[in-house]
Protein backbone atom coordinates (compact mmCIF):
# COMPACT_ATOMS: atom_id res chain seq x y z
CA UNK A 1 0.00 0.00 0.00
CA UNK A 2 1.50 3.31 -1.08
CA UNK A 3 0.14 6.23 0.93
CA UNK A 4 0.57 10.00 0.48
CA UNK A 5 2.85 9.84 3.51
CA UNK A 6 5.09 7.38 1.64
CA UNK A 7 5.17 9.64 -1.41
CA UNK A 8 6.13 12.64 0.71
CA UNK A 9 9.02 10.93 2.46
CA UNK A 10 10.06 8.54 -0.31
CA UNK A 11 10.02 11.08 -3.11
CA UNK A 12 9.30 14.71 -2.29
CA UNK A 13 11.47 15.23 0.79
CA UNK A 14 14.65 13.51 -0.50
CA UNK A 15 14.21 15.02 -3.96
CA UNK A 16 13.67 18.50 -2.48
CA UNK A 17 16.72 18.33 -0.20
CA UNK A 18 18.88 16.94 -2.99
CA UNK A 19 17.75 19.55 -5.51
CA UNK A 20 18.36 22.39 -3.08
CA UNK A 21 21.86 21.19 -2.23
CA UNK A 22 22.86 20.58 -5.84
CA UNK A 23 21.57 24.00 -6.92
CA UNK A 24 23.37 25.76 -4.08
CA UNK A 25 26.59 23.87 -4.83
CA UNK A 26 26.67 24.31 -8.60
CA UNK A 27 25.09 27.79 -8.75
CA UNK A 28 24.10 27.52 -12.40
CA UNK A 29 22.63 31.02 -12.28
CA UNK A 30 26.02 32.64 -11.48
CA UNK A 31 28.77 33.52 -13.91
CA UNK A 32 30.57 30.28 -14.67
CA UNK A 33 28.89 28.47 -11.77
CA UNK A 34 30.84 26.03 -9.65
CA UNK A 35 31.73 22.35 -9.59
CA UNK A 36 30.28 21.90 -6.11
CA UNK A 37 31.53 18.36 -5.62
CA UNK A 38 30.80 18.66 -1.89
CA UNK A 39 27.04 18.58 -2.47
CA UNK A 40 26.88 15.12 -4.05
CA UNK A 41 27.52 12.95 -0.98
CA UNK A 42 25.35 15.14 1.25
CA UNK A 43 22.52 15.20 -1.28
CA UNK A 44 22.51 11.41 -1.45
CA UNK A 45 23.36 10.41 2.11
CA UNK A 46 21.48 13.03 4.09
CA UNK A 47 18.39 12.88 1.85
CA UNK A 48 18.31 9.12 2.38
CA UNK A 49 18.53 9.38 6.16
CA UNK A 50 15.99 12.19 6.42
CA UNK A 51 13.57 10.37 4.11
CA UNK A 52 13.88 7.28 6.29
CA UNK A 53 13.26 9.29 9.45
CA UNK A 54 9.87 10.24 8.10
CA UNK A 55 9.06 6.76 6.90
CA UNK A 56 9.83 4.59 9.88
CA UNK A 57 9.71 4.83 13.63
CA UNK A 58 12.86 6.30 15.12
CA UNK A 59 15.82 4.02 14.38
CA UNK A 60 17.12 2.16 17.40
CA UNK A 61 20.30 3.24 19.10
CA UNK A 62 22.39 1.16 19.11
CA UNK A 63 21.01 -0.11 15.80
CA UNK A 64 19.50 -3.56 15.94
CA UNK A 65 18.44 -4.19 12.37
CA UNK A 66 19.89 -3.85 8.89
CA UNK A 67 17.29 -1.16 8.21
CA UNK A 68 18.46 0.88 11.21
CA UNK A 69 22.05 0.48 10.09
CA UNK A 70 21.17 1.71 6.60
CA UNK A 71 19.77 4.87 8.18
CA UNK A 72 23.07 5.50 9.96
CA UNK A 73 25.05 4.56 6.85
CA UNK A 74 23.24 7.40 5.07
CA UNK A 75 24.56 10.25 7.19
CA UNK A 76 27.90 8.60 7.87
CA UNK A 77 28.70 8.09 4.20
CA UNK A 78 27.69 11.71 3.60
CA UNK A 79 30.42 12.79 6.03
CA UNK A 80 33.00 10.43 4.52
CA UNK A 81 32.10 11.56 1.01
CA UNK A 82 32.23 15.20 2.04
CA UNK A 83 35.72 14.75 3.49
CA UNK A 84 36.78 12.99 0.29
CA UNK A 85 35.50 15.91 -1.77
CA UNK A 86 37.03 18.62 0.42
CA UNK A 87 40.43 16.92 0.77
CA UNK A 88 40.65 16.30 -3.00
CA UNK A 89 41.98 12.78 -2.52
CA UNK A 90 43.31 10.93 -5.57
CA UNK A 91 41.12 8.19 -7.03
CA UNK A 92 43.31 5.41 -5.62
CA UNK A 93 42.70 6.63 -2.08
CA UNK A 94 39.02 7.16 -2.86
CA UNK A 95 38.81 3.55 -4.07
CA UNK A 96 40.43 2.30 -0.87
CA UNK A 97 38.05 4.38 1.23
CA UNK A 98 35.12 2.98 -0.78
CA UNK A 99 36.36 -0.58 -0.32
CA UNK A 100 36.57 -0.09 3.44
CA UNK A 101 33.20 1.68 3.58
CA UNK A 102 31.56 -1.04 1.46
CA UNK A 103 32.95 -3.85 3.62
CA UNK A 104 31.79 -2.05 6.77
CA UNK A 105 28.29 -1.43 5.40
CA UNK A 106 27.96 -5.05 4.26
CA UNK A 107 29.19 -6.33 7.61
CA UNK A 108 26.69 -4.17 9.50
CA UNK A 109 23.66 -5.09 7.42
CA UNK A 110 24.48 -8.79 7.09
CA UNK A 111 25.61 -9.42 10.66
CA UNK A 112 22.23 -10.92 11.76
CA UNK A 113 22.82 -13.83 9.39
CA UNK A 114 25.80 -14.92 11.48
CA UNK A 115 23.78 -15.08 14.70
CA UNK A 116 21.65 -18.11 15.51
CA UNK A 117 18.58 -18.36 17.73
CA UNK A 118 17.12 -20.78 20.24
CA UNK A 119 15.40 -22.61 17.44
CA UNK A 120 17.78 -22.46 14.48
CA UNK A 121 21.50 -22.15 13.80
CA UNK A 122 23.01 -19.12 12.09
CA UNK A 123 22.44 -18.90 8.34
CA UNK A 124 26.11 -18.26 7.63
CA UNK A 125 29.31 -19.38 9.29
CA UNK A 126 31.94 -16.70 9.89
CA UNK A 127 33.91 -17.90 6.88
CA UNK A 128 30.88 -17.78 4.59
CA UNK A 129 30.09 -14.27 5.80
CA UNK A 130 33.68 -13.14 5.29
CA UNK A 131 33.74 -14.57 1.76
CA UNK A 132 30.43 -12.99 0.82
CA UNK A 133 31.32 -9.62 2.32
CA UNK A 134 34.80 -9.64 0.78
CA UNK A 135 33.60 -10.47 -2.73
CA UNK A 136 30.70 -8.04 -2.58
CA UNK A 137 32.93 -5.23 -1.29
CA UNK A 138 35.35 -5.94 -4.14
CA UNK A 139 32.51 -5.77 -6.67
CA UNK A 140 31.28 -2.52 -5.13
CA UNK A 141 34.78 -1.05 -5.34
CA UNK A 142 35.12 -2.01 -9.01
CA UNK A 143 31.72 -0.43 -9.68
CA UNK A 144 32.82 2.68 -7.82
CA UNK A 145 36.03 3.03 -9.84
CA UNK A 146 34.21 2.70 -13.17
CA UNK A 147 31.40 5.08 -12.23
CA UNK A 148 33.83 7.56 -10.66
CA UNK A 149 36.00 7.64 -13.77
CA UNK A 150 32.88 8.08 -15.91
CA UNK A 151 31.65 10.91 -13.67
CA UNK A 152 34.94 12.75 -13.87
CA UNK A 153 35.50 12.22 -17.58
CA UNK A 154 32.02 12.94 -18.89
CA UNK A 155 30.51 15.72 -16.87
CA UNK A 156 27.02 15.10 -18.05
CA UNK A 157 23.92 13.31 -16.81
CA UNK A 158 24.98 9.76 -17.79
CA UNK A 159 26.00 8.50 -14.34
CA UNK A 160 23.16 10.19 -12.37
CA UNK A 161 20.71 8.87 -14.97
CA UNK A 162 22.01 5.32 -14.71
CA UNK A 163 21.95 5.42 -10.92
CA UNK A 164 18.42 6.86 -10.86
CA UNK A 165 17.24 4.12 -13.22
CA UNK A 166 18.92 1.42 -11.16
CA UNK A 167 17.57 2.60 -7.81
CA UNK A 168 14.07 3.03 -9.23
CA UNK A 169 14.19 -0.45 -10.78
CA UNK A 170 15.34 -1.95 -7.50
CA UNK A 171 12.47 -0.19 -5.75
CA UNK A 172 9.92 -1.57 -8.20
CA UNK A 173 11.47 -5.03 -8.07
CA UNK A 174 11.25 -5.14 -4.28
CA UNK A 175 7.69 -3.84 -4.23
CA UNK A 176 6.68 -6.51 -6.75
CA UNK A 177 8.27 -9.03 -4.43
CA UNK A 178 6.12 -7.91 -1.52
CA UNK A 179 8.77 -5.98 0.40
CA UNK A 180 7.53 -2.46 0.85
CA UNK A 181 10.32 -1.81 3.33
CA UNK A 182 13.14 -2.21 0.84
CA UNK A 183 11.16 -0.83 -2.09
CA UNK A 184 10.75 2.43 -0.20
CA UNK A 185 14.45 2.65 0.59
CA UNK A 186 15.43 2.16 -3.03
CA UNK A 187 12.80 4.75 -3.95
CA UNK A 188 14.43 7.28 -1.63
CA UNK A 189 17.81 6.73 -3.29
CA UNK A 190 16.23 7.20 -6.72
CA UNK A 191 14.51 10.37 -5.54
CA UNK A 192 17.78 11.71 -4.12
CA UNK A 193 19.78 11.05 -7.32
CA UNK A 194 17.00 12.16 -9.66
CA UNK A 195 17.47 15.92 -9.10
CA UNK A 196 21.22 15.56 -9.70
CA UNK A 197 20.36 14.02 -13.07
CA UNK A 198 17.95 16.85 -13.89
CA UNK A 199 20.44 19.57 -12.96
CA UNK A 200 23.21 17.72 -14.82
CA UNK A 201 21.05 17.64 -17.94
CA UNK A 202 20.79 21.41 -17.85
CA UNK A 203 24.12 22.34 -16.28
CA UNK A 204 26.99 20.28 -17.62
CA UNK A 205 29.32 20.91 -14.72
CA UNK A 206 27.18 19.00 -12.23
CA UNK A 207 28.78 15.72 -11.32
CA UNK A 208 28.55 12.98 -8.74
CA UNK A 209 32.32 12.49 -8.75
CA UNK A 210 34.42 12.86 -5.59
CA UNK A 211 31.96 11.72 -2.99
CA UNK A 212 28.55 11.35 -4.63
CA UNK A 213 29.31 8.08 -6.40
CA UNK A 214 30.84 6.73 -3.21
CA UNK A 215 27.66 7.51 -1.27
CA UNK A 216 25.43 5.84 -3.88
CA UNK A 217 27.62 2.77 -4.17
CA UNK A 218 27.70 2.30 -0.39
CA UNK A 219 23.96 2.83 0.05
CA UNK A 220 22.77 0.93 -3.00
CA UNK A 221 25.26 -1.88 -2.39
CA UNK A 222 24.15 -2.20 1.23
CA UNK A 223 20.52 -2.15 0.17
CA UNK A 224 21.08 -4.78 -2.52
CA UNK A 225 22.74 -6.99 0.09
CA UNK A 226 19.76 -6.66 2.46
CA UNK A 227 17.38 -7.28 -0.43
CA UNK A 228 19.23 -10.51 -1.14
CA UNK A 229 19.53 -11.60 2.47
CA UNK A 230 16.19 -10.97 4.15
CA UNK A 231 13.11 -11.20 1.91
CA UNK A 232 12.17 -14.69 0.79
CA UNK A 233 11.05 -14.15 -2.76
CA UNK A 234 13.95 -12.34 -4.41
CA UNK A 235 15.82 -14.08 -7.19
CA UNK A 236 19.59 -13.66 -7.07
CA UNK A 237 20.20 -13.33 -10.79
CA UNK A 238 17.63 -10.54 -11.03
CA UNK A 239 19.37 -8.64 -8.27
CA UNK A 240 22.67 -9.20 -10.07
CA UNK A 241 21.15 -7.81 -13.26
CA UNK A 242 20.06 -4.72 -11.35
CA UNK A 243 23.50 -4.38 -9.78
CA UNK A 244 25.22 -4.75 -13.16
CA UNK A 245 22.93 -2.38 -15.07
CA UNK A 246 24.75 0.92 -14.31
CA UNK A 247 28.10 -0.62 -15.27
CA UNK A 248 26.88 -2.25 -18.48
CA UNK A 249 24.99 0.96 -19.18
CA UNK A 250 28.32 2.78 -19.43
CA UNK A 251 29.35 0.82 -22.54
CA UNK A 252 27.75 3.21 -25.07
CA UNK A 253 29.62 6.04 -23.36
CA UNK A 254 32.95 4.74 -24.70
CA UNK A 255 31.62 4.64 -28.27
CA UNK A 256 31.86 7.67 -30.59
CA UNK A 257 28.32 8.64 -29.60
CA UNK A 258 28.13 12.11 -28.11
CA UNK A 259 25.61 14.39 -26.43
CA UNK A 260 22.03 13.27 -26.05
CA UNK A 261 22.61 10.22 -28.28
CA UNK A 262 25.13 8.87 -25.78
CA UNK A 263 22.74 9.59 -22.93
CA UNK A 264 19.85 7.81 -24.61
CA UNK A 265 22.00 4.82 -25.61
CA UNK A 266 23.30 4.41 -22.06
CA UNK A 267 19.83 4.77 -20.57
CA UNK A 268 18.31 2.28 -23.02
CA UNK A 269 20.96 -0.37 -22.49
CA UNK A 270 20.58 -0.14 -18.72
CA UNK A 271 16.79 -0.13 -19.05
CA UNK A 272 16.88 -3.36 -21.07
CA UNK A 273 18.91 -5.09 -18.38
CA UNK A 274 16.70 -3.70 -15.64
CA UNK A 275 13.65 -4.76 -17.61
CA UNK A 276 14.85 -8.37 -17.57
CA UNK A 277 14.86 -8.17 -13.80
CA UNK A 278 11.73 -6.14 -13.14
CA UNK A 279 9.22 -7.18 -15.82
CA UNK A 280 9.11 -10.92 -14.92
CA UNK A 281 8.67 -9.93 -11.28
CA UNK A 282 5.88 -7.55 -12.29
CA UNK A 283 4.11 -10.24 -14.32
CA UNK A 284 4.44 -12.65 -11.43
CA UNK A 285 3.08 -9.98 -9.13
CA UNK A 286 0.06 -9.36 -11.36
CA UNK A 287 -0.48 -13.09 -11.65
CA UNK A 288 -0.44 -13.61 -7.89
CA UNK A 289 -2.48 -10.51 -7.28
CA UNK A 290 -5.30 -11.85 -9.37
CA UNK A 291 -5.16 -15.46 -8.28
CA UNK A 292 -8.37 -15.89 -6.28
CA UNK A 293 -6.97 -18.75 -4.24
CA UNK A 294 -7.20 -17.40 -0.74
CA UNK A 295 -8.37 -13.83 -0.97
CA UNK A 296 -5.32 -12.35 0.75
CA UNK A 297 -4.26 -9.36 -1.28
CA UNK A 298 -1.94 -7.69 1.12
CA UNK A 299 -0.02 -5.58 -1.29
CA UNK A 300 -1.97 -2.99 -3.14
CA UNK A 301 -5.51 -2.03 -3.79
CA UNK A 302 -6.16 -1.20 -7.41
CA UNK A 303 -7.61 2.03 -8.59
CA UNK A 304 -10.25 1.84 -11.29
CA UNK A 305 -7.55 2.60 -13.84
CA UNK A 306 -5.38 -0.19 -12.48
CA UNK A 307 -8.35 -2.58 -12.47
CA UNK A 308 -9.08 -1.86 -16.08
CA UNK A 309 -5.48 -2.37 -17.07
CA UNK A 310 -5.25 -5.66 -15.20
CA UNK A 311 -8.57 -6.83 -16.62
CA UNK A 312 -7.49 -6.11 -20.15
CA UNK A 313 -4.10 -7.61 -19.55
CA UNK A 314 -5.37 -10.79 -17.96
CA UNK A 315 -8.38 -11.25 -20.12
CA UNK A 316 -6.91 -10.51 -23.47
CA UNK A 317 -3.21 -10.91 -23.46
CA UNK A 318 -1.78 -12.44 -20.34
CA UNK A 319 -0.27 -15.77 -21.36
CA UNK A 320 -0.38 -17.29 -17.90
CA UNK A 321 -3.86 -16.38 -16.72
CA UNK A 322 -6.81 -17.90 -18.55
CA UNK A 323 -10.08 -15.99 -18.67
CA UNK A 324 -11.65 -18.36 -16.16
CA UNK A 325 -9.38 -16.98 -13.50
CA UNK A 326 -10.83 -13.52 -13.38
CA UNK A 327 -10.71 -12.21 -9.88
CA UNK A 328 -13.86 -12.41 -7.79
CA UNK A 329 -13.24 -8.80 -6.79
CA UNK A 330 -14.25 -7.66 -10.23
CA UNK A 331 -17.54 -9.50 -9.84
CA UNK A 332 -18.24 -7.64 -6.66
CA UNK A 333 -17.78 -4.33 -8.41
CA UNK A 334 -19.85 -5.42 -11.39
CA UNK A 335 -16.98 -4.86 -13.77
CA UNK A 336 -16.44 -8.48 -14.67
CA UNK A 337 -19.19 -8.96 -17.25
CA UNK A 338 -18.39 -5.75 -19.02
CA UNK A 339 -14.64 -6.26 -19.05
CA UNK A 340 -14.95 -9.91 -19.90
CA UNK A 341 -17.39 -9.27 -22.71
CA UNK A 342 -15.24 -6.52 -24.02
CA UNK A 343 -12.19 -8.72 -23.87
CA UNK A 344 -13.97 -11.59 -25.57
CA UNK A 345 -15.37 -9.43 -28.30
CA UNK A 346 -12.01 -7.83 -28.88
CA UNK A 347 -10.34 -11.20 -28.93
CA UNK A 348 -12.88 -12.73 -31.27
CA UNK A 349 -12.84 -9.82 -33.66
CA UNK A 350 -9.07 -9.77 -33.66
CA UNK A 351 -9.14 -6.00 -33.62
CA UNK A 352 -7.33 -5.56 -30.33
CA UNK A 353 -3.68 -6.46 -30.09
CA UNK A 354 -2.33 -4.68 -27.06
CA UNK A 355 1.34 -3.89 -27.18
CA UNK A 356 3.67 -5.29 -24.60
CA UNK A 357 4.34 -1.69 -23.59
CA UNK A 358 0.70 -1.44 -22.59
CA UNK A 359 1.20 -4.44 -20.37
CA UNK A 360 4.23 -2.86 -18.78
CA UNK A 361 2.35 0.34 -18.11
CA UNK A 362 -0.46 -1.62 -16.52
CA UNK A 363 1.98 -3.39 -14.26
CA UNK A 364 3.51 -0.15 -13.12
CA UNK A 365 0.07 1.25 -12.54
CA UNK A 366 -0.69 -1.57 -10.13
CA UNK A 367 2.26 -0.67 -7.99
CA UNK A 368 1.73 3.02 -7.96
CA UNK A 369 -1.99 3.26 -7.39
CA UNK A 370 -3.89 2.71 -4.18
CA UNK B 1 -11.69 -34.79 72.15
CA UNK B 2 -12.18 -36.87 69.05
CA UNK B 3 -13.60 -33.85 67.24
CA UNK B 4 -10.62 -31.72 68.31
CA UNK B 5 -8.06 -34.23 67.09
CA UNK B 6 -9.93 -34.47 63.74
CA UNK B 7 -9.80 -30.67 63.44
CA UNK B 8 -6.08 -30.60 64.20
CA UNK B 9 -5.50 -33.35 61.67
CA UNK B 10 -7.51 -31.42 59.05
CA UNK B 11 -5.62 -28.18 59.72
CA UNK B 12 -2.33 -30.00 59.56
CA UNK B 13 -3.30 -31.74 56.35
CA UNK B 14 -4.43 -28.47 54.84
CA UNK B 15 -1.23 -26.75 55.87
CA UNK B 16 0.87 -29.58 54.55
CA UNK B 17 -0.98 -29.68 51.25
CA UNK B 18 -0.56 -25.90 50.99
CA UNK B 19 3.12 -26.22 51.72
CA UNK B 20 3.45 -29.03 49.22
CA UNK B 21 1.62 -26.88 46.64
CA UNK B 22 4.06 -24.04 47.28
CA UNK B 23 7.01 -26.37 47.11
CA UNK B 24 5.54 -27.90 43.95
CA UNK B 25 5.59 -24.46 42.29
CA UNK B 26 9.17 -24.02 43.43
CA UNK B 27 10.25 -26.66 40.95
CA UNK B 28 11.30 -25.77 37.43
CA UNK B 29 8.62 -26.56 34.87
CA UNK B 30 9.58 -26.98 31.27
CA UNK B 31 7.00 -25.60 28.87
CA UNK B 32 5.22 -28.32 26.95
CA UNK B 33 4.77 -26.93 23.41
CA UNK B 34 1.90 -29.32 22.67
CA UNK B 35 -0.27 -27.96 25.46
CA UNK B 36 0.91 -24.36 25.43
CA UNK B 37 -0.34 -21.54 23.24
CA UNK B 38 0.73 -18.09 22.22
CA UNK B 39 -2.13 -16.47 20.34
CA UNK B 40 -2.32 -12.89 19.15
CA UNK B 41 -5.00 -10.68 17.70
CA UNK B 42 -4.72 -7.47 15.74
CA UNK B 43 -7.31 -5.14 14.25
CA UNK B 44 -7.81 -5.14 10.50
CA UNK B 45 -9.24 -2.02 8.86
CA UNK B 46 -10.62 -1.08 12.27
CA UNK B 47 -13.55 -3.44 11.76
CA UNK B 48 -12.36 -6.90 12.76
CA UNK B 49 -9.70 -8.82 14.63
CA UNK B 50 -7.40 -11.18 12.83
CA UNK B 51 -6.02 -13.93 15.01
CA UNK B 52 -2.69 -15.66 14.69
CA UNK B 53 -0.61 -18.01 16.75
CA UNK B 54 2.90 -19.26 17.23
CA UNK B 55 2.86 -22.99 16.60
CA UNK B 56 6.03 -23.58 18.58
CA UNK B 57 6.85 -22.24 22.02
CA UNK B 58 9.64 -23.21 24.38
CA UNK B 59 10.81 -22.15 27.82
CA UNK B 60 10.44 -22.80 31.51
CA UNK B 61 9.02 -21.32 34.69
CA UNK B 62 9.43 -21.61 38.40
CA UNK B 63 7.63 -19.80 41.20
CA UNK B 64 9.75 -19.65 44.31
CA UNK B 65 9.60 -16.25 45.96
CA UNK B 66 12.53 -14.11 44.91
CA UNK B 67 13.89 -16.91 42.76
CA UNK B 68 10.75 -16.97 40.62
CA UNK B 69 11.36 -16.76 36.93
CA UNK B 70 9.47 -17.23 33.71
CA UNK B 71 11.10 -17.39 30.32
CA UNK B 72 9.61 -18.31 27.02
CA UNK B 73 10.46 -17.96 23.34
CA UNK B 74 8.70 -18.69 20.07
CA UNK B 75 10.22 -18.87 16.60
CA UNK B 76 8.82 -16.37 14.11
CA UNK B 77 8.95 -19.13 11.51
CA UNK B 78 6.07 -20.81 13.37
CA UNK B 79 3.65 -17.89 12.95
CA UNK B 80 0.36 -19.12 11.59
CA UNK B 81 -2.56 -16.85 10.70
CA UNK B 82 -4.46 -19.42 8.68
CA UNK B 83 -3.35 -17.92 5.38
CA UNK B 84 -0.10 -18.96 3.73
CA UNK B 85 0.37 -15.75 1.72
CA UNK B 86 -0.22 -13.57 4.73
CA UNK B 87 2.14 -15.71 6.82
CA UNK B 88 4.83 -15.31 4.18
CA UNK B 89 4.30 -11.57 4.12
CA UNK B 90 4.31 -10.98 7.87
CA UNK B 91 7.41 -13.09 8.35
CA UNK B 92 9.20 -10.85 5.85
CA UNK B 93 10.93 -7.48 6.31
CA UNK B 94 7.66 -5.53 6.39
CA UNK B 95 6.66 -7.05 9.72
CA UNK B 96 8.51 -9.64 11.82
CA UNK B 97 11.64 -9.70 9.65
CA UNK B 98 12.18 -13.32 10.64
CA UNK B 99 15.60 -13.74 9.07
CA UNK B 100 17.03 -10.91 11.12
CA UNK B 101 14.97 -11.54 14.24
CA UNK B 102 14.13 -15.22 14.26
CA UNK B 103 12.32 -15.33 17.59
CA UNK B 104 10.18 -13.45 20.06
CA UNK B 105 11.18 -13.99 23.67
CA UNK B 106 10.23 -13.03 27.18
CA UNK B 107 12.34 -13.19 30.32
CA UNK B 108 10.94 -12.14 33.67
CA UNK B 109 12.79 -9.73 35.91
CA UNK B 110 10.29 -9.61 38.78
CA UNK B 111 7.42 -11.88 39.77
CA UNK B 112 4.99 -10.72 42.43
CA UNK B 113 2.08 -12.69 43.82
CA UNK B 114 -0.99 -11.17 45.40
CA UNK B 115 -4.24 -12.94 46.21
CA UNK B 116 -3.21 -15.88 44.10
CA UNK B 117 -2.63 -13.68 41.03
CA UNK B 118 0.76 -13.05 39.53
CA UNK B 119 2.14 -9.79 38.31
CA UNK B 120 5.04 -10.66 36.06
CA UNK B 121 7.40 -7.93 34.93
CA UNK B 122 9.97 -8.81 32.33
CA UNK B 123 11.74 -8.02 29.10
CA UNK B 124 9.90 -8.76 25.90
CA UNK B 125 12.17 -8.91 22.87
CA UNK B 126 10.46 -8.59 19.54
CA UNK B 127 11.85 -7.44 16.22
CA UNK B 128 15.19 -6.80 17.88
CA UNK B 129 13.72 -4.36 20.38
CA UNK B 130 13.58 -5.17 24.09
CA UNK B 131 10.99 -3.48 26.28
CA UNK B 132 9.91 -4.04 29.84
CA UNK B 133 6.28 -5.08 30.20
CA UNK B 134 4.09 -6.29 33.04
CA UNK B 135 1.67 -9.16 32.56
CA UNK B 136 -1.12 -10.21 34.91
CA UNK B 137 -1.04 -14.00 35.04
CA UNK B 138 -3.11 -16.70 36.56
CA UNK B 139 -1.66 -19.79 38.19
CA UNK B 140 -3.23 -23.07 37.12
CA UNK B 141 -2.52 -26.27 39.03
CA UNK B 142 -0.29 -27.87 40.01
CA UNK B 143 -1.63 -31.25 39.11
CA UNK B 144 -0.59 -34.64 37.94
CA UNK B 145 -0.87 -35.75 34.33
CA UNK B 146 0.45 -39.01 32.90
CA UNK B 147 2.49 -39.56 36.09
CA UNK B 148 4.10 -36.18 35.70
CA UNK B 149 3.74 -33.15 37.89
CA UNK B 150 2.36 -30.34 35.73
CA UNK B 151 1.40 -26.71 36.31
CA UNK B 152 0.30 -23.85 34.18
CA UNK B 153 0.32 -20.09 33.74
CA UNK B 154 -2.06 -18.03 31.70
CA UNK B 155 -2.23 -14.34 30.89
CA UNK B 156 -3.09 -11.65 28.39
CA UNK B 157 -1.36 -8.41 27.55
CA UNK B 158 -1.31 -5.75 24.87
CA UNK B 159 1.66 -4.14 23.17
CA UNK B 160 2.05 -1.50 20.48
CA UNK B 161 3.87 -2.97 17.52
CA UNK B 162 5.19 0.43 16.45
CA UNK B 163 7.14 0.61 19.72
CA UNK B 164 8.99 -2.48 18.56
CA UNK B 165 9.81 -0.97 15.18
CA UNK B 166 7.03 -2.84 13.36
CA UNK B 167 5.38 0.16 11.79
CA UNK B 168 4.26 -0.90 8.34
CA UNK B 169 0.65 -0.52 7.15
CA UNK B 170 -0.50 1.61 10.03
CA UNK B 171 -3.31 2.38 10.72
CA UNK B 172 -5.04 -0.05 8.32
CA UNK B 173 -3.54 -2.85 10.35
CA UNK B 174 -3.83 -1.88 14.00
CA UNK B 175 -0.97 -0.77 16.17
CA UNK B 176 -2.13 -2.61 19.27
CA UNK B 177 -1.52 -6.34 19.38
CA UNK B 178 -3.08 -8.39 22.15
CA UNK B 179 -1.26 -11.55 23.07
CA UNK B 180 -2.88 -14.39 24.96
CA UNK B 181 -0.44 -16.87 26.44
CA UNK B 182 -1.06 -20.14 28.19
CA UNK B 183 1.85 -22.29 29.28
CA UNK B 184 1.66 -25.83 30.54
CA UNK B 185 4.85 -26.97 32.18
CA UNK B 186 6.02 -30.38 33.27
CA UNK B 187 8.41 -30.79 36.15
CA UNK B 188 11.94 -31.39 34.89
Summarize the structure.
The complex is a heterodimer of chains A (370) and B (188). By secondary structure, chain A is mostly helical.
Structure description:
The complex is a heterodimer of chains A (370) and B (188). With 370 residues, chain A is mostly helical. Chain A has helices at residues 4-26, 39-55, 66-87, 91-110, 126-153, 158-176, 180-202, 212-229, 236-248, 259-290, 304-317, 328-332, 336-349, 356-368. In chain A, α11 crosses α13. Mean pLDDT of chain A is 80; it is low at 298-303, 314-341, 350-361 and 363-370. By secondary structure, chain B is an alpha+beta fold. Chain B has 2 helices and 11 strands, in the order αββββββαβββββ. Chain B has helices spanning 2-25, 84-91, and strands at 29-31, 37-44, 48-54, 58-62, 69-75, 79-80, 103-114, 117-126, 129-145, 148-160, 173-187. In chain B, a hairpin with a 2-residue loop joins β9 (129-145) and β10. The radius of gyration of chain B is 20 Å and the shape is elongated. The interface between A and B is medium-sized, with 32 and 32 residues.
Q: Outline of chain A, from the CA principal axes?
A: globular
Poorly predicted regions of chain A = 298-303, 314-341, 350-361, 363-370
Strands of the largest sheet of chain B, in order across it? Answer: 1-4-5-7-8-9-10-11
Largest interface: A-B, 32 and 32 residues
Mean pLDDT of chain B: 86
Please describe the structure with a list of short key phrases separated by commas or semicolons.
heterodimer, A: 370 residues, mainly alpha, 14 helices, globular, disordered C terminus, B: 188 residues, alpha+beta, 2 helices, 53% strand
Question: What is the topology?
Answer:
The complex is a heterodimer of chains A (370) and B (188).
Chain A: H1 4-26, H2 39-55, H3 66-87, H4 91-110, H5 126-153, H6 158-176, H7 180-202, H8 212-229, H9 236-248, H10 259-290, H11 304-317, H12 328-332, H13 336-349, H14 356-368
Chain B: H1 2-25, E1 29-31, E2 37-44, E3 48-54, E4 58-62, E5 69-75, E6 79-80, H2 84-91, E7 103-114, E8 117-126, E9 129-145, E10 148-160, E11 173-187
Antiparallel strand pairs in B: 1-4, 1-11, 2-3, 2-11, 3-6, 4-5, 5-7, 7-8, 8-9, 9-10, 10-11
